[in-house]
Amino acid sequence: MNAPRPPKIGLALGSGSARGWAHIGIIQGLQDIGVRPDVVAGTSVGALVGAVYVSGQLEAFTDWVLKLTPRDVFGLMDLSFSGGMVKGRRLFGFFEEKHLNPNIEDIEQRYVSVATEMSSGREIWITRGPIISAARASCAIPGLFSPVKHDERWMLDGGLVNPVPVSACRAMGADVVIAVNLNAQLVGRHLSRAGQEEVVREASTRQERNLWQRMIASLSSSDDDHPSVFDVVAASVNILQDRLTRSRMAGDPPEITLLPVLSDFALMDFHRAKECIDEGRRLVQENAATLRAWAGLPRADAVAPKDAKDVKDSEAPRLERDEKT
After folding, report:
1. Domains of the chain and any CATH numbers
2. pTM of the model
3. Could you tell me the CA-to-CA distances from 39 to 5, 49, 279 in Å, in that order?
């Protein structure tokens, strides 16, 4: 009698701006417990992290994001007053220079980037062509990043139509879907004041300091009567994606939902990668038994070593205590 086929695992990486670095920790955690997704679907920052992962570049990418400072983040933002405050060409041009950009169809794992067609509002699944271009098409947060032209169509952020792309995983053949929802907590702080001060402090010339101060003041100044531009944009995106996520996941629930606890993260806190990554890994470890069970893997504590030599020295005291109980 043939052994049953193991389930195909899908990983749905949701939108969430800077909180998206938690996806890195979740992927690393899944690798630690032996769970390898067969299908990866990503929206917005989830599309970017997913693209880096399936193209085999997660380690180098992680090293880079862990070194980001507030000034680095702002330095990668090419300001624009056409379609969005940031064009995104400098940021994604950097990715294309520093990372491989294979075609999606040449990658072993199945990958799909979810974007929104601006002219029709349709949900677009990109499953062919250069993978960084596909990820970029999903990363156009309204009012922040400019739309991008993909296959002669203007694309907006995929979070407008499918913030956690469980349905895309199912359509690509996943039997079991692990969903990462970054939108469960509305963010009350949108542009970190500490980050702003560091950017201004590190500016090398008086002219540069004045430029940063003017830009930051125009984007983040607010009071009880007048919310800032960032407050309006970030709150609108968060509310929309939170409500849409609840609706979409109620209609097509995943087998497992992971909810990183990142309530104090602002929209542009990309320099706080370590906190996000640590939270992602913690979440996987907390749910390791459930994740391994859905993946058809044995419980970690059910696999006994063949002999005493297989037991690490650090594990011996724990085994001795277990024998006495």
Report:
1. 9-192+213-302 (3.40.1090.10)
2. 0.79
3. 16, 14, 23
